[in-house]
């Protein structure tokens, strides 16, 4: 995640200078946008240049106002919809509209339209980044263009976020960053957060929270099993505004409480933990494995799903965050599991796979950061004869790169599911299983 400048400071740009410093013509143009691109924009063409237009929907004719440029690529926002799509709906979050804050790029798109959008983004990245061969390999799993069946969407498309962060502007109001900018903009609502978080009324003129925070402070709000908590600067507060110590919280998933760090990572959507666990079950239901290695295992959300395999003899879970590992040891106490706090490098993965020394089939489950798995780990899978790899990815571009690397190392994609657990945004989650198909990886 890119660093942000201190609250209240704005980067000064000339009227004809982009956010990446390239000059461009700021005059609006009329064009038809054709397909979605990862990042929340649609691609169209005008006067020999490619336009990436935000706040549009594929198939629409729009008036687009440029705000940035890089070479022959122009970045713009749709300021007028000439021919609207049937998937267009009134935005649920006006603050995230043209010229507004980031984090709600698809709030003007229907739920059905968002499924179509995200399915096409995955197809596009597999084709452009993974290449024709990889795209053909995934064709039977993805279905035809225009078919969103591969995308499983969360039932709750509003009031779903269990955490949010914002900055207090110079006037004492909650603010977020304008999309692709360091400029802060006051927000008047946030309909994506849970109802209990919205009930705390951070956004109004007479909010009592304004007495507790100061301009420039960063605010974090979480909604967990114990209730809603608010971090102002470095100090946590109850939903009533009382200061308290908060080192651990819990989230209820499938009837079980999972401990987590209030300052750390947890899945944002209320339904996401359950959906990810179900997706892992579906990805592995047709295979049997005696040994499993879980990479980037976090607080153990998926670990006990792997333990449900009756034949499992050993499971090693590797996570770089020592705090997450402490919670994982609390969440999953089965003697078959060895929780390790290690940097997930190719050398370390190879060492752990060799140390498992198990007969029969082995499985690797990896949920890497946005940058992806990488060449080194993909090569280790082949070298150590891993039978199956389940890859969980939040970025379609890095997923396409990793899928291509696994293919080069003797693996074939046999299962794919796309989860829309970030409704109203361009984000998505991909769960795929790859199986070894040649002697070098069997």
UniProtKB/TrEMBL annotation:
One of its GO terms (molecular function) is rRNA (uridine-C5-)-methyltransferase activity. S-adenosyl-L-methionine binds at residues 267, 296, 319, 367. Residues 17-80 form the TRAM domain. GO terms for biological process: rRNA base methylation. PROSITE patterns: SAM_MT_RNA_M5U, TRAM. InterPro entries: NA-bd_OB-fold (IPR012340), SAM-dependent_MTases_sf (IPR029063), TRAM_dom (IPR002792), U5_MeTrfase_fam (IPR010280). Keywords: Methyltransferase, S-adenosyl-L-methionine, Transferase. The active site is at 394 (nucleophile). This is TRAM domain-containing protein. Belongs to the class I-like SAM-binding methyltransferase superfamily. RNA M5U methyltransferase family. It holds the Pfam family tRNA_U5-meth_tr. It comes from the Bacteria. Residues 14-25 have a biased composition (Polar residues). Residues 1-13 have a biased composition (Basic residues). Residues 1-27 are annotated as: Disordered.
């Amino acid at each position: 995640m890119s660093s942000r400048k201190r609250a209240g400071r704005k980067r000064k740009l000339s009227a004809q200078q982009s956010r990446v410093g390239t000059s461009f013509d700021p005059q609006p143009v009329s064009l038809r946008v054709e397909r979605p691109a990862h990042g929340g924009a649609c691609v169209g063409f005008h006067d020999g240049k490619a336009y990436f237009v935000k706040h549009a929907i594929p198939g629409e004719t729009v008036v687009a106002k440029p705000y940035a440029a890089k070479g022959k690529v122009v970045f713009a926002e749709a300021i007028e919809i000439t021919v609207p799509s049937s998937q267009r709906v009134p935005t649920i979050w006006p603050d995230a509209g043209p010229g507004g804050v980031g984090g709600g790029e698809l709030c003007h798109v229907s739920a059905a339209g968002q499924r179509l959008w995200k399915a096409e983004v995955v197809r596009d990245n597999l084709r452009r980044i993974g290449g024709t061969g990889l795209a053909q390999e995934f064709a039977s799993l993805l279905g035809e263009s225009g078919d969103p069946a591969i995308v499983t969407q969360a039932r709750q498309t509003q009031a779903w976020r269990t955490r949010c962060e914002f900055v207090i502007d110079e006037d004492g109001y909650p603010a977020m960053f304008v999309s692709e900018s360091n400029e802060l903009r006051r927000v008047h609502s946030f309909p994506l957060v849970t109802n209990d978080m919205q009930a705390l009324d951070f956004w109004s003129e007479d909010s009592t929270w304004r007495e507790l925070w100061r301009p420039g402070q960063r605010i974090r709000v979480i909604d967990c099993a114990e209730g809603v908590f608010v971090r102002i600067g470095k100090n946590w507060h109850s939903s009533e505004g009382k200061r308290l110590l908060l080192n651990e919280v819990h989230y209820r998933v499938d009837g079980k409480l999972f401990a987590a760090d209030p300052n750390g990572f947890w899945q944002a959507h209320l339904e996401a933990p359950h959906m990810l666990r179900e997706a892992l079950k579906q990805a592995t239901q047709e295979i049997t494995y005696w040994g499993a290695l879980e990479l980037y295992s976090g607080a153990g959300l998926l670990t006990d799903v792997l333990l449900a395999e009756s034949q499992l003899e050993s499971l090693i879970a590797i996570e770089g965050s020592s705090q997450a590992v402490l919670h994982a040891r609390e969440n999953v106490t089965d003697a078959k599991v060895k929780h390790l706090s290690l940097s997930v490098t190719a050398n370390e993965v190879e060492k752990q796979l060799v140390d498992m020394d198990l007969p029969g089939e082995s499985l690797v489950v990896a949920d890497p950061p946005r940058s992806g798995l990488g060449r080194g780990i993909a090569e280790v899978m082949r070298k150590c004869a891993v039978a199956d790899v389940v890859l969980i990815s939040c970025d379609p571009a890095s997923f396409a790169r990793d899928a291509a690397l696994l293919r080069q190392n003797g693996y074939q994609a046999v299962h794919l599911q796309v989860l829309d657990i970030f409704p109203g945004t361009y984000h998505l989650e991909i769960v795929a299983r790859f199986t070894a198909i040649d002697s070098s990886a069997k």
